[in-house]
From TrEMBL:
Protein's UniProt name: Cytochrome c family protein
Keyword list, A-Z: Membrane, Signal, Transmembrane, Transmembrane helix
Species in which this protein is naturally found: Sulfuritalea hydrogenivorans sk43H
A molecular function GO annotation: oxidoreductase activity
Record's signal peptide: 1-26
GO cellular component, one term: membrane
CDD domains: Cytochrom_C3
InterPro entries from the UniProt entry: Multihaem_cyt_sf (IPR036280), Multiheme_Cytochr_ET (IPR051829)
Length: 666
């Protein structure tokens, strides 16, 4: 072998050795990073909490600790079947630090659930996913809530997002009725307290918080009062009304008695300016009223009342000592605790039953007798006009002067306005009551109108007393208190009433009535009763600070009962019995009877309705001085239109009262 051949062999061997060494080195060198599959197992390989603390740098250079996810809890959560990257869309590389492309937004819990619901509806599977439907309802409520508003201190975020309250990796609502659900319920304050630290501290030391420490699962937590998702600012009317109603979910008896008070009536109408549970008892640091720390303790109660009843401009008069004995939760069921309310309520029920039983029976029998007489032709015409002189056949008898008629009209208008505004407060949960208040603007304005109408009625009543006193004084020598021209009941009224009932059942003739019938006298004196009871109690309620300076607070409880119940009695009596007597008896049809507007009555009708007075005037020769010309046709027509309008308004009010009564609005 020549030298050249040996050289070639040596070169080849060197190249082979170099190649072998290079391959070996390459085989032993570290490999380049390669991305792994982004599944849950891969994520939990680092984020299961077993690898120690994981931190990543933030934009400002500070480090942020990553959340550890317990795999066992995650598999039991509502999101167990979801992949981590379904929410963490910005993670596209499993190698730390994760590569995050620009412009990729984080997942939005609300939008994801809304999209799932829309897809379920599109596939006609919404009925199969009732829980998702509830979530969507919560989402819609949240979007309108205070939490969904922009944070004033940090405009880059909202006040609270889903993950602030819900641990998205372990979230699951336990089934109702389970021990887990009860424990979950008691854990709510700790969640809310992460942001509302001061409120949590107050609640923890309160009667509610102490019960929670004792594992009383019925105690109130944040969500019981503020709801879970439909949370609005506590200063809004919506929140005040909702929280007050929430108190009633647990304190049912106290809430029912509160609703019967003026404070509660306004609240039920949808307005929040009167006292509510939180105004008297506090919001978070609530204590039992026997606790010296309670705002309702007897040592603190007057000061609490004076927060609203402060006497300042636009506020009720300053609360006085009598407020202390007022029972804001008094009821008519507990005689031992509230004997005054119990006795008053029973007395008012007896009065209502007695009055309506007698007069509705009276009206029913009267209608039957007149209807039967008309059917048999025994009451038409009222009198035989051919027995009257021709010059008298078309004459009228003067019954009421101008002052009487004006007073009656103003009285009727004020009463109807009182009924409208008063019954709206008495039946606050009816839809018509809310509509009435909306028409007036607010209960405050309706209350002002109510009091204006009351002062008008009281003024008319006072002027009437003055006029009657002057009239009696002028006729003092000849005036007979129990005579035929007097409104004072006498023995003839009793005989007439007995005679009417005999006539009703066909056992005697219709009695001859004097100038004022017994039912007219009842109407007249009922006004005195109403002024004393309704007017007196109304004035007490309108000026509580004055009354409480001299009388105990329980008089307000009694005043509320008699003012409302007597008003119902008066209104229903007016629009049933009074309307029947004067407008709807068969002899009066078609309505209206306009004698209170024209002041006169045809001689024929006068003789029929007041036969005893007619005979007396004829015998004494005084009939002529009461005779007047019939009112003009236009005046009569206007009177009929006015009468029909008032009757229609009265019957409408009666219908509203019946709706309120049957609908359980009071």
């Amino acid at each position: 072998m020549g030298i050249n051949q040996w050289a070639a062999w040596l070169a080849a061997a060197a190249l082979g050795l170099a190649g072998g060494l290079g391959s070996a080195a390459a085989a032993n060198a570290p490999s380049a990073p390669a991305a792994q599959k982004l599944d849950n197992a891969t994520c939990q390989g680092c984020h299961d909490g077993k690898k120690g603390k994981l931190e990543v740098p933030k934009a400002d250079g500070e480090k942020r600790e990553l959340l550890a996810v317990n795999p066992d809890k995650y598999t039991k959560s509502v999101h167990a079947k979801m992949e981590c990257v379904a929410c963490h869309k910005e993670i596209i590389d499993s190698v730390a630090p994760h590569q995050k492309p620009a412009g990729v937004k984080k997942a939005e819990c609300a939008q994801c659930h809304l999209d799932l619901w829309e897809a379920a509806k599109k596939d006609n599977k919404a009925a199969e996913k009732p829980r998702l439907g509830i979530v969507v309802e919560n989402v819609e409520a949240y979007k309108k809530s205070f939490h969904a508003k922009q944070n004033k201190d940090d405009e880059t975020r909202l006040n609270a997002i889903c993950s602030d309250c819900h641990n998205v990796h372990t979230f699951d609502v336990p089934p109702r009725g389970t021990q887990e659900r009860k424990e979950w319920h008691l854990a709510v304050p700790a969640v809310c307290g992460k942001c509302h630290e001061d409120h949590l501290e107050d609640w923890t030391g309160s009667a509610h918080g102490r019960e929670a420490d004792k594992k009383n699962f019925k105690t109130a937590v944040c969500s019981d009062c503020h709801t879970t998702h439909d949370i609005v600012g506590s200063s809004t009317d919506k929140a005040k009304l909702a929280i007050t109603a929430s108190c009633g979910d647990c304190h049912k008896d106290a809430y029912e008695s509160y609703k019967a008070s003026y404070h509660g009536q306004v609240n039920r109408l949808g307005y929040a300016y009167t006292a509510k549970c939180a105004d008297c008892h506090g919001s978070h640091a609530i204590e039992a009223s026997k606790d010296p720390k309670s705002k309702m303790h007897e040592k603190n109660r007057l000061k609490t009342c004076q927060k609203c009843h402060s006497g300042k401009e636009g506020k009720p008069g300053l609360a006085t000592a009598g407020f202390l004995s007022f029972s804001p939760h008094g009821n008519s069921h507990d005689f031992a605790k509230y004997p005054e309310i119990w006795l008053t309520t029973k007395a008012m029920i007896a009065l209502l039953v007695g009055v309506f039983a007698f007069f509705w029976l009276h009206s029913g029998l009267w209608w039957y007798r007149e209807y039967a007489d008309r059917k048999q032709g025994r009451s038409v015409p009222h009198v035989m006009t051919d027995k009257l002189p021709p010059e008298l056949a078309t004459r009228h008898v003067k019954r009421f002067g101008p002052m009487w008629r004006i007073a009656h009209l103003l009285f009727a208008l004020s009463v109807m306005l009182l009924v409208l505004t008063g019954m709206a407060a008495f039946f606050p949960e009816t839809s018509w009551a809310k509509a009435v208040m909306a028409a007036f603007g607010t209960p405050k304005i309706a209350g002002q109108v109510h009091r204006l109408a009351a002062y008008t009625m009281l003024g008319i009543f006072a002027l009437h007393l003055v006029a009657v006193s002057i009239s009696i004084a002028r006729k003092w020598k000849d005036f007979r208190f129990f005579g035929p021209d007097s409104f004072v009941p006498n023995w003839k009224d009793m005989y007439d009433m007995i005679g009417m009932f005999k006539w009703f059942v066909g056992k005697g003739p219709r009695p001859a009535i004097e100038r004022w019938s017994y039912w007219e006298k009842f109407d007249y004196w009922a006004v005195f009763w109403g002024m004393a009871i309704i007017g007196g109690s109304g004035m007490m309620l309108a000026f509580p600070h004055v009354v409480a300076a001299y009388l105990p607070g329980w008089v307000f409880n009694v005043a509320m009962v008699v003012h409302g119940e007597e008003a119902v009695l008066a209104a229903v009596f007016l629009f049933t019995v009074h309307f029947f007597n004067n407008h709807f008896r068969p002899d009066k049809l078609p309505p209206p009877d306009v004698v209170m507007f024209t002041g006169t009555q045809s001689l024929q009708e006068f003789r029929h309705e007041h036969r005893a007075q007619y005979d007396r005037l004829v015998a004494s020769g005084e009939l002529e001085k009461y005779l007047v010309d019939a009112p003009s046709a236009p005046f009569t027509l206007a009177s009929k239109i006015l009468g029909l309008v008032l009757i229609a308004f009265g019957l409408t009010l009666l219908t509203l009262i019946v709706i309120g009564f049957l609908g359980g609005g009071h």
